[in-house]
Amino acid sequence: MIKVALVMVVFGACRRDELVKMKRNDVRDMGQHILVNIPASKNDKPRSFMVIEDNEMDALRLIRSYISRRPLDETNDRFFLCYVGVDVLHNLWVRIL
Question: Cα dihedral angle (76, 24, 4, 30), rounded to 10 degrees?
């Protein structure tokens, strides 16, 4: 999860609160790239960015792997979840950051 968060910070210059508020439907796999939409945040302007193939970071593989590991029965809409064993901690980012 930390590597995926770092990818979002590097590719999209995301702020901490943007990572916390990121929803599952804000991140869309478009095949050749991943499109990330950031709703209005600190400057009240929505924006978006693409994560493209990067041989050094392997960013697409990291994000796709993270998305594929999400439990199918998870009802929380946040993109970033914390897993402890089989349980999901929903407010991890608030405590860490």
Answer: 160
Low-confidence ranges of the chain (pLDDT < 50): 91-97
The predicted structure's pLDDT at residue 95: 46
CATH topology of domain 2-96: hpI Integrase; Chain A (1.10.443)
Specify the pLDDT at position 50: 93
Quick one: 59 exposed, middle or buried, by C-beta within 10 A (0-12, 13-18, 19+)? buried
CA 65 to chain centre: 12
Q: Which residues contact 20 (CB under 8 A, 6 or more apart)?
A: 78, 80, 93, 94, 97
Q: Which residue has the tokens 């064993």?
A: 85
